Amino acid sequence: MAKPIMIQGTMSNAGKSILAGGLCRIFRQDGYRTAPFKSQNMALNSFITEDGLEMGRAQVMQAEAAGTAPRVEMNPVLLKPTSDTGSQVIVNGTVRGVMPAKEYYAFKKQLIPEIMKAYQTLAAEYDIIVVEGAGSPAEINLKQDDIVNMGLARMLKAPVLLVGDIDRGGVFAQLAGTLMLLEEEERQMVRGLVINKFRGDLDILKPGLQMLEERTRCPVRGVIPYVHLDIDDEDSLSERFSSQMPKGRIDIAAVRFPRISNFTDLNVLSCYEGVSVRYVDRPAQFGDPDLVILPGTKNTMGDLKWLMESGIAGKIQQAVSRNTPVIGICGGYQMLGTMLSDPEGVEAGDGVPVSMRGLGLLPVRTSFGTQKTRTRMEGVVTADQGFWGGLNGCRTEGYEIHMGETSLDGGQNLGRIRNMQGSDARMEGCTHGSVCGTYLHGFFDSPEISGKVAELLLRKKGLGIEDLKPVDRKAYKEEQYDKLAKVIREHLDMDAVYRILEEGVSG
Hints:
Blueprint: E1 3-9, H1 16-29, E2 34-37, E3 40-42, E4 46-48, E5 54-56, H2 57-66, E6 77-81, E7 86-91, E8 94-100, H3 101-107, H4 112-123, E9 128-132, H5 150-156, E10 160-165, H6 171-181, H7 184-189, E11 190-198, H8 202-216, E12 220-225, E13 250-255, E14 260-261, E15 275-280, H9 283-286, E16 291-294, E17 296-297, H10 300-310, H11 312-321, E18 326-329, H12 331-335, E19 339-342, E20 354-357, E21 364-381, E22 395-408, E23 415-419, E24 426-428, E25 430-432, E26 435-438, H13 447-460, H14 473-491, H15 494-503
Parallel strand pairs: 1-9, 1-10, 2-9, 3-6, 10-11, 11-12, 13-15, 13-16, 16-18, 18-26, 19-21
Antiparallel strand pairs: 4-5, 6-7, 7-8, 14-17, 19-20, 21-22, 21-23, 23-24, 25-26
Helix pairs in contact: 1-2, 1-14, 6-8
C-alpha cells in the first residue's frame, strides 16, 4: 500500500496545489510511483479523462508532474460553482446534480465511502500518494463531517505539512493561528510548517522562524521562494488575471467572465515570443486587440447578461466591425450565437425555463439540456473562408464539456472531429467572417493551431514571422515541472519529508 503525505494550507491560494505538484515530480524523479489525490475540489477548471470522466484541473497538473495518466480517482468529488450559493456536484466524474451549499453540506458525508474507495484504488497501485487539502483546516464552522482537510487526514492516517503564504502578509499568524484552532490530535498530525512565496533575505526571516517553532512546537521544514513558473492554474484565484502584462507584437484580449472556466485553454498562446494575453473585465481595459477570445464559463446565460450590462459586448461587436478575429470556446461559443434557450432551467439549476438573445455574431442557436457531453476528441480544421479558414488542414485535439447543443443556421463548420477511439466522426464549430466558435477545449494546445494563429495575426499586421518558433506544449510543461522540482529540492528539507513519509501516523 502507498504511503500518504498531505499538503494543507492556511488559506486558499497558499500554494498547496503547486507544492503538491512539485513533490509529485520529485518523488517521480526519485523512482517512486506517485499519484496525487484531492477528495473534494472546488474549481471551474476541469478536464476530461480518456474514459470520458470529469475531474479538477489541478490534479491533472499534478498527475502530469508525477508522470502518470490523470484518472478520476485522483479527484472523486468536484464542485463547480454555478452561483454564489450553489454548485454542480460531480462524483466519480459524472454529474449528481446542482445543490445549494447548505444541502451539499448535509449530503457530503454520504460521499465518504466513494472517496475512500477512490483513494484505496490508487494506494494499491502506487508507492506514494500526495494528498492535497482545500482552503484551510481551521474553518471551525466546517469541521463537522470534514472530508477534505483534517477529517480526511484522519481517515487516511496521513501526516500533514501546513503551508502559509508570506507574500500576502501575516504568515506567522496564519500558521500559529491555524495550529491553535486545531484539536490536539490534529496538531500532532502536522509534522512540519512550510512558508511559501518568500521574497527577500532569509537571514532577516530566521529570527521569526525560530520564534514560530518555539511557540508552535512544530518545525519549519522549508521556506520556498517566490518563483515565476508557467504551470496550469487551479481556478479563478489565478495570478494571470491580475498581472499587468505589457502588450506584445500580438495583443490578445480574453474576457474574464465572473464564472470563467477552463481558461487554461489560453495558456499556450502566451508561450510565444511577442504574444501577450490580457484578461479584461471592463470596457476601459479592452483597447484595440489583434484577437479577442471568449473562454468557457460555468454559467453561460448569467455571464452573457453580465457581458452585455458591462459594456464589453459592445466592444466585441466594434472589434468585429473592424474585422478583428474573435473566437469563443464552449460557453463563449454559445454566447456568440443568435439565441440561447434553457427550457428546463439547467444553467441556473432552478428548473425555471429561460431564453435570451446572444451577441448575434455567429449564425447558431444553442439549447441547454440535462445531458452533459464529456468526450476527448481529435480532428482537423475544414473551414476555408475568412481569417479562421487560414487554419485549413491543421490538426488538433482536446475535450468537450458542455450541457448545450448548438445548431447552425449558416456559416461554415470549423472542422471535422471524432472521439479518441476513432468513432462518431462529425462536423463541429462554426466560422462566419472573422468570428469563430468551438466546443473543443485545448484547441490551441496543438502547435499546428497555435503557431498558425500567431503567424496569421502577424501577417495580418504586416509583421515578419522569422522569429516565430513553434511551441511544444507537452515538452514545455515538462520543463516547468522540472524547474519547480529543483526549487523545492533546494528549499524544502526532503530528508525530513522522507522521514515523515516513512514514520506515517500511528493509531
